[in-house]
Amino acid sequence: MKPFLLLASRAEDDAAEDEYHSYLRYGGLTAGQLHRIRMEAAPLPELDLDDYSGVIVGGSPFTSSDPEEEKSAAQHRVERELAALLDRIVAADFPFLGACYGVGTLGLHQGAVIDRTFGEGLGGVTIRLTDEGLADPLLKGMPEHFTAFVGHKEAVRVLPAHAVLLAGSLSCPVQMFRIRNNLYATQFHPELDVGGLITRIDIYRHAGYFPPESAEELMAAAGLVIVTEPMTILRNFVERYAS
Questions:
Q1: Domain 4-241 has CATH 3.40.50.880
Q2: Higher pLDDT, 221 or 31
Q3: DSSP string covering 217-241, please?
Q4: What CA–CA distance (Å, rounded) separates 212 from 209?
């Protein structure tokens, strides 16, 4: 089969490696079936979408809705490159799954209002599927309610009219949406398990997601949460679009 493409932008090697291996594990992929590009490290090379089964955008410490003058040169470059690539992906309705940062990229590209109104701290939340979500093939086999890990400063406040809301939560009304037939974004992390969340809490304790002194408490709380359902989305994405 053609490989899937993972576009990553975590500068911290431990976080980047943990994320990559999570996508391999829960997507049921081998290293040869998931081509990763670390966008924060260098300009995006020329890509031919015909070389891939689908595109995945992982999480990121970048916050799309930050004031332009506060963004780093690397963030400005990554945003420009992703926007240009999304022009092509959306036009072709090419299989796309954006996790967390995918909301800030696909959402903004499609006219969503993204701000800090519905930010969530690091931890588990209850996700509820909409009627459209229950019927969507990417959510096949998912229960109406499930627990997923989140941790984000920004979120969708207003979806564009042409987007289909697939899931929400009490603290963040837009947890997953679809554009056209094959373009998806989740606010929660479908790749993230307890070990992965603990790793990120440790790495990002000074990144503004939570008070640094609360890191150990958050890690202990994460260990008490059972998260098993969101990973089904990754397996469904791979099974549906592998070509």
A1: yes
A2: 31
A3: HHHHHHTT----STHHHHHHHHHHH
A4: 9
Which pLDDT belongs to residue 208? 83
Cross-strand partners of 146: 127
Q: What is the tens place of the pLDDT at every residue in 42-52?
A: 999 999 999 99
d(CA 225, CA 124): 7
DSSP assignments along the chain, one per residue: -PPEEEEE---SHHHHHHHHHHHHHHHT--GGGEEEEETTTSPPPP--GGG-S-EEE---S--TTS-GGGS-HHHHHHHHHHHHHHHHHHHHT--EEEESHHHHHHHHHTT-EEESTT-EEEEEEEEEE-HHHHH-GGGTT--SEEEEEEEES-EEEE--TT-EEEEE-SS-S-SEEEETTTEEEESSBTT--HHHHHHHHHHTTTTTSS-GGGHHHHHHHHTT----STHHHHHHHHHHH--
222 pLDDT above the threshold of 90: no
C-alpha dihedral sign at 189, 89, 77, 164: negative
Domain extents for the chain?
4-241
pLDDT at 126: 97
Contact 62, 8 (CB under 8 A): no
How far from 224 is each of 160, 189, 195, 229, CA to CA, in Å?
A: 36, 17, 11, 16
The answer to whether the CB of 104 falls within 8 A of the CB of 114 is: yes
The mean pLDDT value for 124-141 works out to 97
